[in-house]
Amino acid sequence: MPLIKKTYTDNGLLLLWELTETLDSLSKMIPSETHNPIFLKRTNPKRKKEWLAACLLLREIDCLPSQITHLENGKPEINHPTYKGISISHSSQIVGVFLHKSRNIGLDIESTERDYSRVEKKYLSLDEVQLTKKTPNGHALFWCIKEAVYKAANIPGIHFAKQIVINFKDEIISAYLIAEKTQTYQVNYTEIDKQIIVFLIDEEDLNS
Question: I want to staple 148 with a disulfide (CB 3.0 to 4.6 A). Which of 53, 106, 154, 184 is the partner?
């Protein structure tokens, strides 16, 4: 069972699954969910695999798929006794679930081999374009950070280049969303087999 990473951080939990199995193999691991309407609605085998892998990751916290709902924009919400925040992401190779006990969070996973040049001006400021040249896999990392902020903030129409600012200080990365009020996020990231995984946490509690 390729649960390849289980990381606890600041009351959060990151779970990663490597998509190495066939759809049939995954279905046998969690046969009850192959009858779920959400699974049946998916026609693409890859999407079916991603959904089953996410269900298997949720088992790590004794969470059923029925405890996950989605807002109209697709943002997931979780009904769980321990975790109040959830973010789900996937690439061609990895499915991830990030959870937190009390804060809004964001998770994004992208390949370092993707071509980001066509969208560079849409998601990076001029200063950030220069910063990517000094940062290993900078384009992929910055894209993931901004996508994760967007997921955490859940504010439609955010301008990635103008409203999401990435800051490096003493090798610590933070991100700021400039909206009605400035929101600050603690940024964590790792790389596995040319996949960048960014998981970040809002500095304010959900109930604050």
Answer: 106
